[in-house]
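Side project, low priority. Logging it here so it doesn't get lost.
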Amino acid sequence: MTVPADTTPPAPAPDGADEGGAQAARERQSHVRHELRAPLAVIYPLLSLLVDGESGALSPQQREHLVVLERNVERLEALVTGVVDSGWSDCSAAPAKREQISPLDLAESVAALRRLDRSGGPAVIVKRAAPPTPRAWADADDVRQIVAALIRNATTYTPSSGLVSVSMAPADDSGTVTLEVADTGPGMSPEELARAFEFGFRGEAATRVKAPGLGIGLWVCRRLAERSDGLLALASEPGGGVRATLTLPAAAS
C-alpha cells in the first residue's frame, strides 16, 4: 500500500474574498492536508510489512486485529483523499449519500474497535432499548465519522475509571432521531462550549492532557451533520462530563 502524493491544488478563494485572507486560508489548508497525510505515510508501509508476515509469523488473533487495522487505515486514507479532493473547507457543500441507517449500529462498530485497544481508557457502553432500533436518513460514512470522533473525544478526556455511554432516542414528533454520547470526564466551561465548534479551537483539557489534533474535529463533524440536515450539539457543566447529541432526520418507517 502506498499513500498518494498530495498534488491537490489549494481550494480557490470565494468570490470577493480578501486576497490576504484567501492566502491565509490556502496556507491553512495546505498545513492541514500535510498533517492529515503525514501519519498515514508512516502507518501504511509498517502495516503492510506486518500483514505480509515480513516481521514474523502471526497468530490468528493477531492477523484478525491487523485486518481490522488495515481496513480502517484504508478507510481513513479514502476519507482524507475525499476531503482533500473536494476542497475540505467546503465539505458541507458536497451532496450527502443518504440512505436508511442505524446510527446505533455504527456506534457499536466503533466501540468494538475501541475495545481492541489495550492501552487502557474508560469503558465504552452502547445502550440499546427495546427494538426496533431507531433508524435515520443520513450519509452512513459521515455519521460513522462523527460518532467515531465523539467517542474518541470522550475517551480522551475521561479517566480510565470513568464511563462513556452511547444511547439513542426514538423518532419524536419532529421527525428526528437523536444519538447521544455522554462521558464522565471533567466537563467543559461555558466559554469552552461557546467556542467548541470553532475551527482550530482547543480547550484547556486538550492542553492539559496533551491530546493530539488540530482542533478541527468538531468543526468538521458539525458540517458533516449538516450535510444530512442534522444537528450536532454539546452540553456540559464543569466536573459533570460532556453530552454530545447528534440529531438526524428519521427514516421513513
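Brief comment: The chain is about 45% helix and 15% strand.
Revisit when time allows.
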